[in-house]
Amino acid sequence: MKSHAEVAEVWPRDGLVRLVGHIYGRPVRDEDEWRLLLVLRCGEQRLHYQVALEENRFESELPITDLRKADPASVEEWDLHLTEGTAELRVGRHLDDIRGKKRIMVYPEQRLADFSVRPYFTVNDNLSLECRTEVAS
Amino acid sequence: MTADRLPVRPADGPPRHRPKVRYLLLHAYGRGGTIRTVMNQTNSLVAAGWEVELVSAIRRRDDLQFPLDERVRVSTVVDLRDDAYVRPIGLIERWQEWRKGRLLAEPPRAVPPGEFGYRHFNRYVEQQLARYLRTLRDGVLVTTRPALNLLAAEHAAGGVIRVAQEHMNHGTHKRDVQERIRESYPSFDAVAVLTERDREEYARLLPGTRVVRIPNAVHSLDQVPSDHRSKIAVAAGRLFPQKGFDILIPAWAKLVETYPDWQLRIYGSGEKKAQLRELVDKHHLYNHVFLMGHTDRLDDELAKASFYVLSSRFEGLPMVMIEAMSHALPVVGFDCPTGPSDVLTHGVDGLLVPPEDPDALAEAMGKLMGDRALRADMGMAAVMTAASYGPDAVHPRWEALFTELHRLHRLDRLPEGRGARGDATAGRQAHAAAEGPLA
C-alpha cells in the first residue's frame, strides 16, 4: 500500500473539523513541517492548516467558516491531504477491516445558517468534506 | 397450491414408521430467524431419511434466502408475486378474479390484530390456507407462528398430527393472541417452545396438552474461535425497538472515555436506522459505534470480535447470541424474557444484567473490555454452552417427538379397548416415556 495519512478519528464539533491519525508508509523527519491541505475538487483553491505531530501521529483542525466562499456553489467538495511541501498524502482510512466506509462511518453535518459541512468517506475510503449552501432561487 | 420445487427422491423411500412432515411457514422466501431455523430443521430431517415438505403460506420472492437441501419439496399456497397474475378469460374467471380482489382487501377474521404478522393476512389468504389445511389427512403438520397455529387448530382436523411451534415467548404476545392461544392450542398433539421458562408457562396455560421444550439449533458448531485480542464488540439484529440498540448506544457512551480504542459494531438493517444514527451523533459516538448494515458473512465478523452484546427488550431464543458463543465470544446481555437466562450462566459464559438498565450494561461491558483473560475464560465456557444448541444435539429431539406422536396416533386408531384412549394407563405411560428425552 502506498503512503497515506491514516485517519483514526474525525470530530465534526463546535464549528471545527478535527482529525487524529498517523502518517503511514513514510518516514517522518524532524526537519519537515507537515500541514493539512484542503484542495477544492472543482477549482483552484487550496487551504493549509497547522498539524501537531508526535512521531508519526498527527492531529489537526480547521474552522468550517473558512470553507464558506463569497461566490458559493450549492455543493462543493474538498479533498483532504497532509503535506510537507513536496509530497501530498491523501487522508483516508485503509488499514482496518471495514469495507464500504461511505455507508458505515458516517459523520454528522454542522450547520451555520444556510451553510453546512459534513466530513465523509469516498467510495475509495478517502476523507473529504462536503459543503452545501442553500442558494436562494 | 403450487409445487415450487419437486424433491429429489431418496433411493429407497422413507421407512414406514416415519410419517411425512410438512412445515407451514408464513413466508419461506423471507429472511427471518424462524425461516432460517425451520430450514435447518428440514435439512436435518431429510438428511436423516424423512420425507419433508416446506409449505409457504404466501410467496413474494422468486428465490429462497437460505440454503435448503434439494430433497425438501417446496410449495406455496398463495403466490403474491406480480408475474403470478394470470389474466382471467371468460365470465366465471372474471367473476372469480373480482371476488379474489375483494377478499384480498378484506381484513382477516381468524387472525387477531395483535398477531405481529397480521398485516400479511387477509380473507383471501385465510380462506386459501383453510382450504389447504382441510386437505391434510396424514403425516405431521408443523405450524410455525400463532396465526398459522390458530388456522391449523381450526382447519387441519382431517387426521394429520399437529405440532404448534412458538418462536416467541408467551408474555410477548398481545392479549388477543394470548386468549386465542389458550382456546385453540389444546387441539394440538404437541406445542413446542424454545425455553424452559416458556415451557412452564404454556404447561400452566394448557393443562393436558403436551408441551415440549426444543431449542432452535445454530447452523453449525464448526466455527473459527475469537482470540479475544481485538477491541471490537458486536451486536446484531433488526434495527427496531425490540433489539434495544437505543439503550446500547447511550450505554456505550459511558465507556468511551475509559476505553477510547474500543469499537461497537451493530449488524443488521431496519426501520429505525435513522433514529439510531441520530443517537450516535447526539452522543458523539461516530468514531466508536458503527451501524454496519446487513452482512452475508456474520460468521467472519463474529470471529473478529472480542465479545457479544445482547440489548434486547425481549426475545424468543436469541440465536445470533448462541452463534456468537460458538465463536468463543462471551456475552453481556440483558436478562430479558426469554432466552438469555435459559442459555447463559451469569459469571461463567457471560454477564447478565437487569433488563433495560444502561448503567448495568455499561458496567458489565467495561468489565470485559478491561480484562482479556476474563474474555478468554468466559469465551471457552461459551463454546461449551453453545454445543448443546448444535444441530446434532437438537434435531434428534424433533425426530423423537415426531416418531412418538406418530406411534401414539396409530395406537389411538386401534379398535376400541386396545388403543391409548381405551387404556388410560397405557396412554399415560406412553406419554411419560416420551417426556424423558424431550423435557
Explain this structure.
The complex is a heterodimer of chains A (137) and B (439). Chain A has one domain (4-133): Immunoglobulin-like. Helix content of chain A is 3%, strand content 53%. Chain A has one helix at 101-104; strands spanning 4-13, 16-24, 35-40, 46-54, 57-63, 75-83, 88-92, 110-112, 115-121, 127-133. In chain A, a hairpin with a 2-residue loop joins strand 8 (110-112) and strand 9 (115-121). The longest helix of chain A has 4 residues, at 101-104. Chain A starts with a strand and ends with a strand. Chain B is an alpha/beta fold. Chain B is built from 15 helices and 14 strands. Chain B has helices at 33-47, 90-105, 123-134, 146-155, 175-184, 196-205, 245-253, 273-282, 298-304, 319-326, 340-343, 358-369, 372-387, 391-412, 424-438, and strands at residues 2-5, 21-25, 52-59, 73-79, 140-143, 161-165, 190-193, 211-213, 232-236, 263-267, 289-293, 307-310, 331-334, 350-353. The longest helix of chain B is centred in the C-terminal third of the chain and has 22 residues, at 391-412. At the A-B interface, strand 1 of A face strand 11 of B.
The largest sheet of chain B has its strands arranged as 1-4-3-2-5-6-7-8
Uncertain residue ranges of chain B: 417-439
Q: Which descriptor suits the 3D outline of chain A?
A: globular
Shape annotation of chain B? globular
The biggest sheet of chain A, with number of strands, parallel, antiparallel or mixed sense and barrel status, is: 7 strands, mixed, barrel
Biggest sheet architecture of chain B: 8 strands, mixed
Helix content of chain B: 40-55%
Helix-and-strand structural type of chain B: alpha/beta
The tally of strands of chain B reads: 14
Mean pLDDT of chain A: 94
Looking at the overall shape, the CATH architecture of chain A is Sandwich
The figure for the number of domains of chain B is 3
Structural class of chain A: mainly beta
The tally of helices of chain A reads 1
